[in-house]
Amino acid sequence: MKAELEDTDVRVVKVRGLSRPSARDRVWREVVSWFWVIVVFMLIEGTLVQARVIPSGSMEPTVLVGDHLIVSRIGYDAGIPFTNIHVPLWRNPKRQQIMVFRAPLEDQGNPDFIKRCIGIPGDHLKIVEGQVYINDVPLKEPYVSHTPGYADSAVENFPARFSELPLNDRPEWATELREHTVKGELVVPPGQYFMMGDNRDNSNDSRFWGFVPRDDIIGTPVVIYMSIDAPESVWGPGFAIERFETYADALVHPSEIRWRRLFRTF
Question: CA-based angle 263:44:56, to the nearest 5?
């Protein structure tokens, strides 16, 4: 009987030894797990949503410097993360909808901008003393911020006085604008969109560099998940250390977080 028990114990030990994975197996399982996490992240980042932080005040007061947004790409754009490969999808921007897009500024690497879509294909657009007209109808824009005294400026009388605007970022826009201006109104061509910032007199937008092709539309913001009161320079490219310090400072000084803006939807 004792011999039988000993033999049973040996078999149990062997079975238990076989069921325990080796260090190599554990490492491999960890690698595979992280691989699938990365794949899922890339699929989400490329086709569903993206996180963005606002580096300028061109959309104030709607969107502030330091607002962190979740941008929905669903139906607008699909791309491979960390590449320039993008495929436009079935949805198109609507008039007055806030959009994220690649600006037509090749010399600057086509940076991502956030503006409001003001003109869609076929629209006849003009601005007279700060009032936007679409197809001869005044556009109601309760979200717009105007600088006092700018009503008589070239930027608030477009395209009538476009020749007075600095077009340094994209000089060819002057020629394109003439081609698409009919009887003092800018006609938005097929597949193109006219974007403007809500901070109307302090926005580098379509008035200065032209239309945004449909292929360059990325998506639309859906919610603010974080908002930190910090200078514009912190959120610009090339300031990773300063940005990290800003996040760390916000943990120590929570008053720098704009709590009332958190989870605000668009």
Answer: 50
- Give me the residue label for tokens 């959009």: 99
Consecutive H or E run containing 219: strand 217-227
CATH homologous superfamily, domain 48-222: Umud Fragment, subunit A (2.10.109.10)
Task: Collect all residues with Cβ–Cβ distance below 8 Å to 206 and sequence separation of at least 6.
Answer: 115, 118, 119, 193, 194, 195, 196, 212
Structural domain spans, the chain: 2-45, 48-222
Q: Check whether 80 has a pLDDT greater than 90.
A: no
Cβ-Cβ contacts under 8 Å for 63 (sequence gap 6 or more): 54, 69, 98, 114, 198, 221
Return the SS3 of 5: helix
Record the tokens describing residue 258, joined without a space: 């704009």
Give the model confidence (pLDDT) of 104-157 as tens digits: 999 999 999 999 999 999 999 999 999 999 999 999 999 999 999 999 999 999
